[in-house]
Structures are given as C-alpha cells and as structure tokens.
## 1
Amino acid sequence: MKSLINHKYPSVSDLRKRAMLKIPKFAFEYLDGGCNDDVNIKKNTNRIRDIELKPNYLVDYKPPKLKTKLFGHEYDSPFGIAPIGLQCLMWPNSPQILAKAAFKYNIPFILSTVSTASIETIAQITEGNAWFQLYHPADEKVTKNILKRVEEAGLPVLVILADVPSFGYRPRDIRNGLSMPPKMTLSNIVNALKRPHWSLKTLLNGQPNFETLKPYMPKNLSLNQLAKFMDSTFDGRLNEEKIKRIRDLWKGKLVIKGTESLYDIKKAVDLGLDGVIISNHGGRQVDAGQATIDSLKTIYPVYKDKITIMMDSGIRGGADIARVMSCGANFTFLGRTFMYGVSALGIKGGNHTIEMLNKQLTQVMDQLSCAEIDDLKKMLVL
Ligand SMILES: Cc1cc2nc3c(=O)[nH]c(=O)nc-3n(C[C@H](O)[C@H](O)[C@H](O)COP(=O)(O)O)c2cc1C
C-alpha cells in the first residue's frame, strides 16, 4: 500500500489534486485560497523558485544528513508543520494525524489555538514535543489560563501571532458562507454530499469543536453566537505591551510569527524573543505584500546572529525547502502542503508527506553534494 501511495502521489501538486477531489469544495477552498486576488499566494512560491543553486560535483562526497538543531532540540529534518485553524473541516482528526506523524519523524508540529484538538491531546500524542500558537484572547485571565495549560503540558515553544489584526478578505470563504458567522448553505450541503467518504468520516467523528477553547465557551452555541464569541474573545492586534506581558509569563522559548519587516524584527529582538517565523500567513492576510523569501533575504544579513530565523509561506516541496535554507533560514514550516496530504490520504497523509519531503530534499542535497543542511548556503547563485 505504501509503495502504491509513493507511486501515485510523489509531489505536493499530486496531493493537492487528490485533495480537491476528496473533500467538499467549501473545505478545499478554505484551505487552498489566499486573500483578495491571490496575488501573494502565487508570488510566495514563484519567488522561492527564482532562487538558483549551483552544484559542485567533483568534491569529497558525504551522504546528506537532514538533521537540524533548533532551540536545543535536534530535529530529523529542517521543516515542521505550521499551525492551521479549523483543521477538522478538511479531514476529521487531522491535527491528531499530523501530530502523530510529526512525533514519529521527529519534526515540530504547531497547534493553533483555533484548531480542533486540545493542547492536552496533542501534548500526549507528541510526548510534550509540540509547539503551541496563541491567538490573543481579549481577557488576560484566558491568556494566563491557556499559558498555564501549555506549560503544564510541557510544550517547549510558544508562538505568538502578529499578522491577524483583522480577518483576511477571502472572497471564496465569503461566497461559501465560511466568513464569520459561518453558514451551512444549500450549495455546501450539496457539495458535502458529492464527497461521501468525507461526509461519512465527518459524521462518524461528530461535529468538530474548538477543543482548546472549550473551557471558555458557553455550551451549544449557534453559529451566530459562535461568531460573537470569537469576536469578543479575541483581540488579534499584537503590541509591545502584550508581548512584554507574555514574555514575563512564559518561561519557555518565545517565537513571533507573521512578521516580515526589519522594524518588527528589531522590536522582537529588543523584547527578548527567541525566534521569528517570517510569514505572510500563506498569502491569506495581505495581498499587496512581499513574498516571504524576499523578506528573509533582507532580514537574514542583519539579524542572523541575534534571533533564530524561520520562514513559511509558499513552500511546496523538498527543492523549495533547499532554496529557502540556502537563503539563511534556520528552519522552515509548511501549512497547506501537510493539509493537502491529510485531505488526500487521510490517516496516511502525515507520514506520506513527511517521507516525500525528506526524499525530495535528500535528492536535491545529494545532487548538490551537500552533506549538511548548512552547506546549502554555499550553493546559492548570487
Ligand atoms: C487554512 C489555513 C488556516 C490557517 N490557520 C492558521 C492559524 O490558526 N494560526 C496561524 O498562526 N496560522 C494559520 N495559518 C497560516 C499557516 O500557519 C502558515 O503560515 C501558512 O499556511 C504558510 O503558508 P503555506 O500554506 O503556503 O505553506 C493558516 C493557513 C491556512 C492555509
């Protein structure tokens, strides 16, 4: 079975195509789409692919090793699984499936506050090795309680999010009734019925919930009440005061995600943060921005010795990971790629996607005669 999967889905675009056929249109479009006119989502990948690496063949060859140290942990690969909200909309139990795969292959899995599995469940699956991404509760008591749960679960890294001061303007989600408040439109019901495997699995697993937020939510909310709850519970805009308070409360590693400017990175460094994930939310928030790879190229030379620099947005395969690492990133994250994998292949999707990326990256490094991930920087055509 495994070799059949390898044979049928050897690339991210194969997984994406399969996912499109396997899950209802509203779920696929929620996952796949960007904001406004999809300019940035395309630019993210296109600009990564403008990067060229030049091999030296006549060298003292050693086989490639993908192991990468990050925050004192040696991961088996230089990539991890980015936080995704509402994961069960795409496939039931997808956070659990991905967390299990991440633990098995020793890569980080980041749980979103608005995902559909709880902090405690994911901590148990990963034996305390997952990271947690915090949306910003308006009520300080909720923040403190969430941070206490993350600490008690033993998770080593907290990721705070900068790039959702307001919801992205996403035309597909608006058309499909997935903006706030969500609506189950007739066309969504028809679409779900056209995907019987998804419908059956979803029915069997019951209605997905925001498990991490359950203790703070009134029971049995209608969709309209849920929208009001989300609006009043979260205050997305991050500022220095909030970061200072979180820095004081959180003793583990603290990472900011969604920052792209030298201005924000300087603040992050000054506020004592440990890392940054240069990200534009996979082109879902601002359509007039820069590709993240271009932000990385600006930020890396200035801040490489001051803060751990990671990047996501637009990475669609092992060769892309090689390109991003060659520009100085200490680590990479992928969002949609992993969700395409699970949407396409269900419980096998996590393992398959990681194995595929490992194979693709190993092949690129082998071809470039790079023994270590760090060697990729020497191959960059300037
Ligand atoms: C469907 C979807 C939901 C997302 N939800 C979250 C979230 O809850 N928290 C978060 O920090 N980022 C979220 N992101 C952004 C991802 O963490 C990541 O930055 C992005 O997917 C990277 O781009 P890529 O999909 O091109 O790899 C989401 C992205 C997608 C596609």
## 2
Amino acid sequence: MSKRGRLIAGLAALAVASTAGVVAATRGDHGSPGAGAAVAVEATPKGASDADKAARKREVDVLLAQRATAVLKGDLKGFLAIVDPKQPALVSEQRTLFTNLREFPFTKLNYFVDAEREAPAVVAKYGAGTFSVRVMMRYQLTGLDNAPVQTDLGYSLTRRDNRWVLVSDTALDEYLSRDGHRQPWDYGEISVTRRDNVVVVVEKAEATLGAQIARSSQGAVDAVLRHWSRPWNGAVMVVAMREPQVMSLLWTAGRGDGWTIAAKAVSLYDGEPLGLKTTAPVGARIVVNPAYRKRTDEDLLVHEMTHVATASMNHRTPIWLVEGLAEYVRCRSIEDDPHWTVDPYRKRVRSKYLPSLKALPTTADFDANSDRAYGLSWWTTEYLAATKGTKALTALYADLSAHNTTPVAYETIIKRHTGKTPTALAAAVKNWRG
Ligand SMILES: [Zn+2]
C-alpha cells in the first residue's frame, strides 16, 4: 500500500476560490495611487480624455476580434499583425502563444477590453501615447467545456505609423486574476495528448510523459464513472507542466510547515475572474504539482477527477463531503483491483482518528491536521454509502450543493437524508467500524 496509499490532497473548489479572492485583493492594493501613478501623470501631462479612451477601446476591440478570428482560422500572420515588429523576442513569444492555442479546438473564442489600467513603466519606455488595457479572454474548448469560461490578460499598446501596436503583455500582470496570463499556453511550447475525452498538457520536451498521464487519466475517469452515479462525460484537462507559474498555484497548505499538495482541481467560471465567486463554476482543470508530475499515477488522479466530475456541485457542499467523496472514490477504485487494499488506511482511521471525532471536519480541521481530516471525511462518506446506499449519498450531495445556504438549511438537509442531526451523524460515524 505504501506505493499507492499515500494521501492525495486537493482543495475544495470553494477553498481555491477564496484563496484567489484574497490574493486578488492584495494585488489590487498594489494598484492604489502612489509613486508609480505620479510618474504616469508626469509622463502624460494632459492625459487621455474619456472620449479618447472610448475611441481607442473601440479600435482595440476590433484588433482583438481579428486576433480571435486568426486563432480560429489558423492565421499566424493575422495573429501577429498587432505585435510590435521591432521586438523580435515579443514576436517569438506571441508565435509560441499562437502555436499553443492552435493545439486546442475552440468552440468559442473572444477577446475584449475590460478597462484601461495605469502602467507607468511602459509609458516611460514606449512614449506618452502608450496605454494599457485589461483584456478578457472568453472561450470554450470543444469537447472539454460545456459553456464558455473567462480568464484575463493585459496588453500595452502604442501608436506607430498610424496604428496601434502591442508592445507588452506583461505590464498589467499584477492587476490580473490569480491565473490570469498564467494559463498553460502562456509559457513555452506545449504538447497536448488526447485520449477519448481526456486532454493532457505537458511541456513539448516531455511529450512521452503526456502520453503516460493520458493513460492514467483515462483509468481515473473510468474509476470515477464506476463509483459516482451522476452523469459525467469524463471530459477533463490535466495540466502537468514543469513550469511552476502555471495557474499560479501554491503547493503547500495547513499551518506551520504545512503539507504538500500533489494536485489540485481548479474551478473555472464564466464572468469576472477577479474576486470571490458566488456562483457555481462552469468546469474545472486538474493541475499537477510540478514536483509530482513524473509520479502522476491513477491513484493521484482519481481523487482530483472526482472533484472535476462534481465541479458544478461543490459550491455549497461542505468540505467533509467534497473531500470525503474524492477519498471514497479513490479507495474504492484501489480495491477494484483484488491485489490492492486500503486496510492500512482503515486501521489508521479506526485507531488514530475516530476516537477523537466530535464533529464532521471543517476547513479549520483540514488546516490543523490534514491526514486526520481527510481520513475522517472518507470514513463518514463510507459510512453513508454503507448504511444508506450510494443513491442516497448522491442525493445528499446534490441537495447540499443546491440548498445548503444557511446553518439551519444544512441541519435540515442532513436530517432529511440521514435521519440524524450533524452531531448525531458524527457520533454514529465514530461508532461505525466499517
Ligand atoms: Zn480533494
């Protein structure tokens, strides 16, 4: 069991969204008027009028629409038309971006200007007429996304030969959402492997790894389909790149030295990418910790695949059930193979964690002792599946995801499906030997 039995951790969708909100707020603070803004005022003594800004927004939107069309049609020349020809490095980066984007079939792709943002450094470098805009990329990947999702990027443009040219795409990075301009296609050249509905993205030099992960991913999808009764098309993107900046994820959690996260399911939304999300996500991607990418096996992926399969249902579902179900499916899939068992995990939960169980694990419990919290969440889910059946487990999950809006609603739903209060449920789980 030591080979496959290590604890695989990923954060619930809600926790990821909250983290993104916190980071976004910090980044926003960097944008407050200060020394940098003062420089911008000096560099553009008159500043652009609102009418000027509206006019150039319209003009840039036209250029962005041409860019999107160029991606969809495979028109490299059209894609690069906006790029400053005097910057070979930028042209080369943009060519790589085009090559990478062409690896994905898009059902939809639009770029449009959100709003202008101050970026004094590019004004100082490229002249007073330079301005920067936060740009939305709204897209839907064919076979992966059921609906469009959004991410953001930042473009700086200047006037040259009576037209706007793109001089930088990094000046606004600090204003963007956590994974804005940090998508898998935003770095070096990638390799994309498809296997049924699974899409695996790795760096081009690691294409062999991509093929291996695609096989493990397919096995993981099959495992989820065996143990989770809700319909799911098994469409998922797994990103396993060496580049640590992709999706800007932190790989440690908890207090003190914390614990290392092997992979995460990252939620995707259609709408403003910045700030705390209040709506259900549209979908999810699995991102593997770069340090673990060469050990991305089926065991690691099953847990995260479960989060993807339930992505649109995790918004209001308590963390003990979101993580408990992922562990439940993982453990069940391990024991589908008669040569493997999770008995050591069972024993650990029974002897080490159950005696101290007083309430179902909360986010604070996961931070304080993740092994214990994952173990108890798993045990609770096993209890529900064993005593109520998997259909009832699914019904409970669906009810919580839709209606768990207040503590009173939570208690009502738990009672409706288990016949017990949350406290009584915890007591029953504590006494259950499996
Ligand atoms: Zn998880």
## 3
Amino acid sequence: MDATQEIWLNGDFVPWGEARVHVLAHTLHYGAGAFEGVRAYRAEGGTAIFRLDAHLDRLFYSAASIQMPMRFDRAALRAAAIELVRRNRLEEGYLRPIALFGYGVMCVSPERAPVDVAIACWPWGAYLPHEMVDLKISRYPRIPPNATVADAKLTGNYLNGILAVNEIRGTRYHEVLLLDACGNVAEGSGENVFFVKGGALHTPRLGAILPGITRATVMEIARDEGIEVVERDIRPGEALAADEAFFTGTAAEVTPIRSIDDRVIGGGEVGPITRRLRGIYLDAVRGREARYRRFLTAVG
Ligand SMILES: Cc1ncc(COP(=O)(O)O)c(C=O)c1O
C-alpha cells in the first residue's frame, strides 16, 4: 500500500501515520462497520471522483442498516473526500471511507459505542492484475440475506469472502465465485458477475449480492448500447455455458473471466461484448464519454 500524506479522521486531516483507532474499538471485535471503495481517475479536465454520490448513498444506507448514527452528514463527507484527494495531490487512485464503532463499551450491542469516521486515499492500480481471470466456485455460500444485511457494505459481511479466497491460496485460481444459499450464482468476493448469452447480458438479480455501483453503471451502458440486460437467477451450469463472462467492481473495474472451475468460457478470449463494455466504462470513468460525465465529481 502506497501511503499518502493525510487521512481525514473525525473532521480533521491528520498525518497518515497518526490516523489511529483504539485496539478495543467495538468494530474490531464484532465486525459492525460500514465502508466504501471509491476510485478517482485522471480525467479529461483533471482528477475526478467517479460516482461519489452513489457511494455516499450506499455508505449511509450501510450505516443505517446497523443503526449506526453518523457523526457527519453527507455534505461534510462529500467535501472531505474531495479535499482529501486535493490535499494529497492524488491524481488517480482509491478512496476508502469507513464508519466504525469505536472505543468505549465491550458488549455485542454497539448502542453506546462512539462512532468514528475516516476517509483515506492512495494510489492503486488494477485489483485483479490479469488480462483474464480463472475462478473457482467456493464451497462457502454467499452469506444469505436473512442472516445479515446482504446488500449493505458491512465489514463483518467480508468474513464470508475471506473464507472463500483463503481456499484458493497457493492455487492457480485468481478469484472465487460464490453461489447463494439456493445454489444460484451470486458474486465474487469483491465483484459482481455478468454473463453474455445470445448477445444479451445476464446477471444475478439483487437479493443475495452487493448492489454494485459498477454493476449499475455497466447495466446502464449496456442498455444505452442497445444490449438487453436480464437480472435473474443463474444456475452454475448456465454460467459455464455462457459465451462470455466478466466481473465488475470499483476496484476490479471490468475484468474478463477466462474459466470457472477449469471450464473455459466461450473461446477463452476476451469476448466482443465484454471488450466493448469495458472500453466504454474506462472511457466513462475518465470523462471521455459525454453521456456519463454526470458521474464525475471534479476535484479541482
Ligand atoms: C462483495 C462485493 N460485491 C460487489 C462489489 C462491487 O461493488 P461496486 O461496483 O460498488 O464497487 C464489491 C465491491 O465493493 C464487493 O465487495
């Protein structure tokens, strides 16, 4: 991780190395924290944050889902994110806002715990640094929506993904694919998944997955391009028989999938629809697509 100069913590810009929380912080012990992953890009007119408002919406939704009172309103966090990128002179990279229950009480209920809010940013290249990725279907099902708030970005939800990626350590697989509790395709440990079949895009419907902001962006791009998008239950067998497959995520952007459980998808090459959508997405995030410039927040 490449450190930058400052981190915004509870209203102040503090030196990177001094942005600390107590070891007895509640979230560290029980996993109730809300966070986001956001990217800033070197865009046409200077650095811009992509879909900042959608990420802030999801952060506040996630915090509300665990009854976490946010100490700062949306406008304050929005201004802090922009100012942080500017102060750190980050031209391109990743932002990590997090709201956590801090130090003060030690019992499962976070009711009386104070809330700490931070935003960090740093330069960060490709999350899945491969032209195409090979996946293994995990034996851990995606944590079901009746056991957690599956559509919130909560720290504790990630234990599920950690167990899944631990299984592929030391293997040739790059990422995992989790199924939902009914055996339908859900998502990767940090990505949503799409399949191309007969010229249309198919993706798991909302419910057991994180409603990805990149997923929504790619669906909008596809529809604008006249490509049909179908949100539905997808059985693993259908996934393996797809013509093309790809992941989406803020960190992963659009990453083509080569194989799943050693079965090569389509011809094992980046397919034409994946290539087209990836190209438009990468143009959109850098402000090269007038249609999607509204998603950019200029840092100035
Ligand atoms: C489990 C999971 N699914 C999907 C995504 C993709 O979401 P987004 O496109 O909003 O980054 C992420 C990343 O945040 C994730 O962690």
## 4
Amino acid sequence: MSILPEKHFAVIGAGNIGRILLERLRDAGVPPAHLVVCDSDTERASAAAERYGVRAAALHDEVVCQADVWLVATSPASVADVVKALAGTMRPGQIVVSFAAAVPVSHLEALVPAGVSVVRVMPNAPSLVGQGMNPVVYGTSAIPDARTLVEAVLATLGDWIEVADDQVNWCVGLSGAAMRSLVPVLEGMTRAGVEAGLSESDARRIAAQVMLGTAALALETDLSWEEIKGLTPMQTVDEPAVAQLFVDAARGVKAKIDGLQRKL
Ligand SMILES: NC(=O)c1ccc[n+]([C@@H]2O[C@H](COP(=O)([O-])OP(=O)(O)OC[C@H]3O[C@@H](n4cnc5c(N)ncnc54)[C@H](OP(=O)(O)O)[C@@H]3O)[C@@H](O)[C@H]2O)c1
C-alpha cells in the first residue's frame, strides 16, 4: 500500500516540472487536499491549482510551511531563496526535494536545520507519462524514511538511479534535457514517412515505436551495442558520427551547467 496518500506535499514552482509533479501525485492517489502549489506568478499558481483541483498558496502560508515534503521546481536561481524562506519554520522530519539544475545538494543542506532531509533530483519530461528517468542524490542528512518517501514519489514519475552530487551536471545532458536531443530523430523519421505518403500520425507512430523498441532491446537484453546493431544488417547513418554527436552534446550541456553553477 502506497504511503503517498497520507502525506502532504507543497509543489513550489508551477512550471513544466511542477505541473508534472501535481499530475502524477494526484493520479497516484494523493488527495487534492494534501497538495498545494505556489509560484511567484500567482496567476500561474492559481491556473495550476484549478487544473489539478488543488490549493494555491503563498510560500509563507501555514499550509505550505506544514507540508511533509517540499518539491521545489523553481528556476535554479530561486531555489536557495525558497529554502531559506522556509527554513525558519522547518521541523525535523520534513523533506526538501530540489529539482533544479546547477544547485548541489550540499549547498541546500547548509541552509536547513538539523533533522531536515535534503534530496536532489534531476527531472525529465517523459515523467509526464510515467516514463521518466530521474537521477537522485540523497544528502547526508537524508534519513531512511525520507528515502522511502522520495522513492515513492519517483516511482510515480518513472525510473530513477542514485548518483553522486558531482555527477548531476552530466545528468542534465544524459537525461534531464536529453529528450531534446532525441526528438529531432523522431521528427526526421516522421518527415521521411510523410514523404513516403504516410499520414503524419502513422509516420509518427512508426518512428516512436522504433525508438521505444530499440530502447527496450537495450533495457531488456544484455546484447552489446554491436550485437544490437548486427540484428539489422543495413547501416543507415554514420553511426560513429551520430554516437559522437551525443557525447559532445552531453559534454557541452555539462559545461553550460557548470558555468551556471559557478554563477549561482
Ligand atoms: N523542464 C525540464 O525538462 C527540466 C529538466 C531538468 C531540470 N529541470 C529543472 O527543473 C526546474 C523547473 O524547470 P521547469 O522547466 O519547470 O521551469 P519553469 O517552467 O520555468 O517553471 C519554474 C516556475 O517557478 C517559478 N518560480 C521562480 N522563482 C520562484 C520562487 N521564488 N517561488 C515560487 N515560484 C518561483 C517560475 O516563475 P517565473 O517564470 O515567474 O520565474 C516558474 O513558474 C528548473 O530548476 C530546471 O533546472 C527541468
């Protein structure tokens, strides 16, 4: 039996990730009365609250301060300010989960009183359909109960993997933003299907299922990359060049996030 419905959650930041969290938690059986949303843009908070049937509140409202878990999905530049604003009323046992890029868990742990667990997650958008990959870092303060609860939240989003704090900037290019790298592959395949006379939706279905099926081969077998490629004899792209493109993309994203982290 899930522990989620008995807990109270405050989602801070009603943007892409905040809305995904509200939707997945609601669908996982968290009662709307146990969910509250805040945003510096109060209209955005109200719109999200109306859409998911939950309450909107300000950061300093009691309902926010009393939450069991704060899911902080604001821009990276605001996360420390949000945590500092809540720190004054924090009590042992409460949990802060930051979804922001470029903000190390160690930085946030230094802002909270003893007994508060701090966790960092690098979210990704396929979580909207429960197919996300969300690398997670537990702060040194995170107690076993906090891990159990955070894993229940992550299970609503898809899969997760524990990584070190200093690996998370890599994870932006490997998972957090990686969907953006893959969509052009789907777009190109769909366009080729349309050129062949297929409807847009049929072409899109073929492209998406080929990507899903290829991913399943990677996840569900222990075949090497060469063995997987060998299942289809015809090479269709410059494979080493495409692979290198993705290595370079992840390196480039890491460098960008490292730069942002130095500025925060
Ligand atoms: N989207 C992704 O796929 C993805 C992937 C990896 C990591 N992330 C991380 O997840 C976090 C959220 O991303 P997102 O795409 O959801 O961003 P977003 O759509 O820009 O949403 C962030 C929301 O937080 C609000 N906000 C900013 N400061 C606030 C404060 N002090 N108190 C309350 N609300 C505040 C923003 O309002 P304003 O617009 O008025 O500032 C905005 O509505 C970011 O830190 C990002 O690094 C996102």
